[in-house]
Design goal:
alpha/beta; seven-stranded mixed sheet; 8 helices; 2 domains; Rossmann fold; nucleotide-binding
Length: 322
């Protein structure tokens, strides 16, 4: 839970986030997950992380939150090293929270929020209860995933924060709640100069939300710095042009933000497929059997036989509960 610090309020033009050339691997013996990632944001920014599944967005957010150690890197939030001098005022909200057995236990929402300090921030708590349409009498074990997500957001946002890291936590929300929440978050960045970094695959209703976008591909940030949003004369060349958009994207009348995201992801898949082929060809040319055994190809595998899965299927009652 966040707690604001006087040091995070001074200097509205100071960098809120400074990630220079970040490299990270879960296993030292494995290829890196993040490669030369760069991210610098001033206070009051609202930044979207855009990239395919596995591009490294969640890992980057967790490192900035201090939940993953990248000991060889110097990552600063409000001028403080996130590993050696952790700043206050940082809130991270991810999807894994809703799977925690504790938050699925038989506890009343009002008691749950009080247990994490709701009584200290009653005005903000009450506003969030209204925005998120949360019933204080709900019992955590008996509500839907979307309702449980609303409780998580109320819990995580009721204490004032200076940096908010969101990882796909609006995926379960209905359209109205999501729209009202985004309005609240934008207001926080304007009135309090708070900063938001938001990774999502849902771009409906986001056209006017971000001040910056960051494109991540195969574990790296594609551009040396976040791109201003919406595009302007100085950076329009860094966005996909109309000529690059394929597959009927224009005819489908997508929003400009969704059109850009889809164009980037289509480009990412082409580049990833080409990289995988080049890696496989290089390993084959060198006769590197170990490297070849580690390679994985996504999609259909031409020439491979399928197997009869009836024995596997019969062990499970997939129709239970229907």
């Amino acid at each position: 839970m966040a707690a604001t610090d006087s040091s995070t309020s001074a200097g509205s033009n100071a960098l809120a986030v400074d990630v220079p050339n970040l490299n990270f691997a879960f296993d030292p013996a494995a290829p890196p997950t993040l490669i030369d990632c760069n991210l610098q944001l001033t206070r009051g920014s609202r930044c979207l992380l855009i990239g395919a599944n596995g591009a490294g967005k969640s890992t980057l957010l967790r490192i900035m939150a201090g939940k993953r150690l990248a000991s060889a890197s110097s990552i600063r939030v409000f001028g403080r090293d996130v590993f050696r001098d952790a700043p206050r005022g940082v809130t991270y909200l991810g999807t894994e929270w809703a799977m925690n057995p504790v938050v699925r236990s038989d506890i009343v929402v009002s008691h749950f929020l009080d247990s994490v300090g709701g009584y200290r921030h009653k005005e903000r708590r009450d506003r969030l209860l209204n925005i998120l349409d949360v019933d204080l009498d709900w019992r955590m074990h008996a509500i839907s995933d979307g309702e449980r997500r609303r409780v998580q957001l109320c819990m995580g946002l009721m204490e004032p924060w200076d940096l908010l890291l969101l990882d796909e936590v609006t995926v379960d929300l209905d359209v109205q709640v999501r729209a009202d929440l985004l309005d609240f978050l934008a207001e926080e960045t304007i009135k309090r100069q708070a900063t938001i970094i938001y990774a999502t695959h849902i771009f409906d209703g986001l056209q006017g939300f971000p001040t910056h976008v960051v494109h991540m591909r195969l574990g790296t940030t594609v551009n040396p710095k976040p791109l201003d949003w919406p595009p302007n004369e100085s950076n329009a060349h860094e966005y996909p042009s109309l000529a690059q958009r394929e597959g009927g994207l224009i005819e489908r009348e997508l929003s400009p933000l969704l059109t850009v995201a889809l164009a980037w992801l289509r480009e990412d898949r082409v580049i990833r497929t080409k990289t995988e082929k080049e890696t496989a060809d290089s390993a084959a040319a060198k006769g590197d059997a170990q490297a070849l055994s580690r390679l994985r190809k996504r999609g259909a595998r031409v020439g491979e036989e399928t197997t009869d899965s009836e024995a596997f299927f019969s062990k499970y009652d997939y129709g239970a509960g229907r």
